[in-house]
């Protein structure tokens, strides 16, 4: 292993954004919870079963494109909604309407609470670039570019594959590997030469099925075992652990 905690054949690092580079995962979780609870309360009344911000978030929405997250969570409750249109208003009971309601809440939370980076992740990305490896950010979020600008990290990534780019290129989102594969291709490396850094189980599934050379799970919420089960070669609580030799095992 190199001083970066990576196999010697790795030439590029592909980083998820929310929960890996920035702390926006907590804002996403809160926005999903408010959106789904409001919908379920209207549908089922006061006795509705709330959205679980740990179990439901990890299993059904974390790392997935917004509409896929809506579909997958509702399917877990046996609920099917019309797809609607991408510009459906937030109050409309469609897949896109719920997705737009969540995004409106998220943007409000970002404006009110701001976005912070994980210092260990910034340190690690800088070390990766100093070592001559190429970097990409791979995120399901359509707000990825704005978030990177807000934290001053745009210039730390050679390639950005986010929700906007995925829609333009018709790339299916995680757990499909296509967005990670596109990032590797844009960087000029094979999947085997690229390492994936993810906090989401869907992202780990994408790394495994895409044949990537190494997968690092970032455990922010106590799901180290699940990350390993979904394909993580190493799990850390923070990326700085890879520099300090504090990976939690394989």
UniProtKB/TrEMBL annotation:
For the protein in the UniProt heading, the enzyme class is isomerase
According to the UniProt entry, its GO molecular function terms are: beta-phosphoglucomutase activity; hydrolase activity; metal ion binding
**The keyword Magnesium is annotated on this UniProt entry:** yes
Q: Which reaction does it catalyse?
A: beta-D-glucose 1-phosphate = beta-D-glucose 6-phosphate
Cite the EC number.
5.4.2.6
InterPro entries annotated for this entry? B-phosphoglucomutase_hydrolase, Beta-PGM-like, HAD-like_sf, HAD-SF_hydro_IA, HAD_sf, PGP-like_dom2
Q: Which cofactor does it need?
A: Mg(2+)
Q: Which UniProt keywords apply?
A: Carbohydrate metabolism, Hydrolase, Isomerase, Magnesium, Metal-binding, Phosphoprotein
Q: Cross-referenced Pfam families, in alphabetical order? A: Hydrolase
Similarity field: Belongs to the HAD-like hydrolase superfamily. CbbY/CbbZ/Gph/YieH family.
Q: Which PANTHER family match?
A: 6-PHOSPHOGLUCONATE PHOSPHATASE, HEXITOL PHOSPHATASE B
- Per its record, how is this protein called by name? Beta-phosphoglucomutase
The organism encoding this protein is Streptomyces indicus
């Amino acid at each position: 292993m190199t001083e970066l905690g990576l196999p010697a054949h790795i030439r590029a690092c592909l980083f998820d954004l929310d929960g890996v580079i920035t702390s926006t995962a907590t804002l996403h979780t809160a926005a999903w919870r408010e959106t789904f609870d409001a919908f379920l309360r209207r549908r089922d009344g006061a006795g509705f079963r709330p959205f679980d911000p740990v179990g439901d978030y990890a299993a059904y929405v974390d790392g997935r494109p917004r509409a896929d997250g809506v579909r997958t969570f509702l399917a877990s409750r046996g609920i099917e909604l019309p797809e609607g249109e991408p510009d459906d208003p937030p109050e409309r009971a469609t897949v896109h309407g719920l997705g737009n309601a969540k995004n409106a809440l998220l943007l409000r939370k970002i404006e009110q609470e701001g976005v912070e980076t994980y210092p260990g992740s910034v340190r690690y990305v800088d070390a990766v670039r100093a070592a001559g490896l190429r970097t990409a950010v791979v995120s399901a979020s359509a707000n990825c570019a704005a978030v990177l600008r807000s934290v001053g990290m745009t210039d730390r990534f050679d390639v950005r594959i986010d929700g906007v780019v995925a829609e333009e290129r018709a790339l299916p989102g995680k757990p499909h590997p296509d967005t990670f594969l596109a990032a590797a291709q844009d960087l000029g490396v094979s999947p085997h030469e690229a390492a994936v850094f993810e906090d989401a189980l869907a992202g780990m599934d994408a790394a495994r099925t895409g044949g990537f050379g190494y997968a690092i799970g970032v455990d922010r919420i106590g799901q180290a075992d699940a990350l390993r089960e979904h394909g993580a070669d190493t799990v850390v609580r923070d990326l700085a652990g890879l520099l300090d030799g504090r990976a939690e095992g394989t």
